[in-house]
Amino acid sequence: MKKNSLYKGTLQNIILKLLAKDVKMYGYQITQRAKELTQGELEMTEGALYPLLHKLEADGMITSEVQKINGRDRKYYLLTEKGKAQQVAQENEMKNYLFNLNTIFNI
Prior knowledge:
This protein is 57% helix and 18% strand. By secondary structure, the protein is α+β, with helices and mostly antiparallel strands. A 3-stranded antiparallel beta sheet has the order 1-3-2. The relative contact order is 0.15.
């Protein structure tokens, strides 16, 4: 089994959580932060990240702003109020899920 397969269903939760902690981030920064926090276990690909970012933006969970950095445009993503509420709800749901998995796997 690929090590990233367990993360696949939680990428939206991970993106929202990272944005909740760091206020605004650009795509590559999101992938690197996830990789850093998981000590290399989670390698988010652009093919997985950007469609989710576009979906979250279309759903009103995040918004974006473009800034010029060293003469190049960089697109930053930020949580909206709706996204903040969704992130809290998903985090609570995920914590409950992990608690239940931990209970099952420790019997």
